Amino acid sequence: MLVIEGLTKRYPTGDLALDGVSLTVPDGQVMALIGPSGAGKSTLIRCVNRLVEPTAGTVRLGDTELTRLGGLALRRARRRMGMIFQEYALVERLTVMENVLSGRLGYVGFWRSWLRRFPLSDIEEAFRLLNRVGLDHMVDKRADALSGGQRQRVGIVRALMQNPDLLLVDEPTASLDPKTSRQIMRLIVELAKERGLAAIINIHDVMLAQQFAERIVGLHAGRIVFDGAPGALTPEV
Ligand code: ADP
Ligand code: ADP
Q1: What is the CB < 6 Å shell around ligand 2?
Q2: Ligand 2 centre and the CA of 202: distance in Å?
């Protein structure tokens, strides 16, 4: 469970990106975070994984208060958060399997022999997940030979290979066509549900959010202006 209380971020430029946001996401809940550009969606996700330092407020994941951690403890806590990015963030010169296994490791080795260090069970799990997203026939393809939809599926599997407690997903479909966007959203939601993960999906597209998420939180100027079921969302929000 993710518990955010009074989260506030003022950037050094003076921009108040988050203004006292409180939010609880239980395990197994897929929440879409919507709002216009500049509402604070990315800042919220980045305050959770501490790529951005909040000005005030707390973030807890299970029993761990993330906002207190530093150094090694913070790195360990980040391993519990699977990230999925708009631009996929794959290592282009590595294969699908190598990219996926880097999720288990937490970093990409500088020489290929690191692949051999993985136990068979990890490789099998990677195959199972790649099969689940329809990419098991492409394990040896380099990332730079994949389409956008395929790259994002690799990104999803890489995040799941971390065995995360939480998925943080930042505009996963912003670079994809509408049909592929729906496929990717469906996969993210199904896999999060199967594994009982809490998920925050930062998404610009309100229709996609309504179609796939069970809960929608609307941000505007750093404040929550809507929190409810997709059906309760009115055009004024
Ligand atoms: P969204 O993801 O909803 O588009 P952001 O979190 O990116 O919103 O931005 C929220 C506000 O914070 C905006 O006013 C933006 O200009 C500001 N902001 C975001 N990142 C920075 C930064 N690194 N430095 C200063 N201001 C920032
Ligand atoms: P998907 O819907 O599975 O993501 P697409 O329909 O977008 O796939 O792409 C079909 C095929 O075209 C894929 O097998 C992919 O290898 C190839 N392809 C698409 N975009 C690119 C690209 N930017 N670079 C290389 N190959 C690409």
Answers
A1: 145-147, 149-150, 180
A2: 25
**Ligand minimally distant from the alpha carbon of residue 171:** 1
Query: What's the chain look like in SS3?
Result: CEEEEEEEEECCCCCEEEEEEEEEECCCCEEEEECCCCCCHHHHHHHHCCCCCCCEEEEEECCEEHHHCCHHHHHHHHHCEEEECCCCCCCCCCEHHHHHHHHHHCCCCCCHHHHHHCCHHHHHHHHHHHHHCCCHHHCCCEHHHCCHHHHHHHHHHHHHCCCCCEEEEECCCCCCCHHHHHHHHHHHHHHHHHCCCEEEEECCCHHHHHHHCCEEEEEECCEEEEEECHHHCCCCC
pLDDT tens, 39-56? Answer: 999 999 999 999 999 999
Q: Is the ipTM of this complex over 0.85?
A: no
pTM exceeding the 0.90 threshold for the entire prediction: no
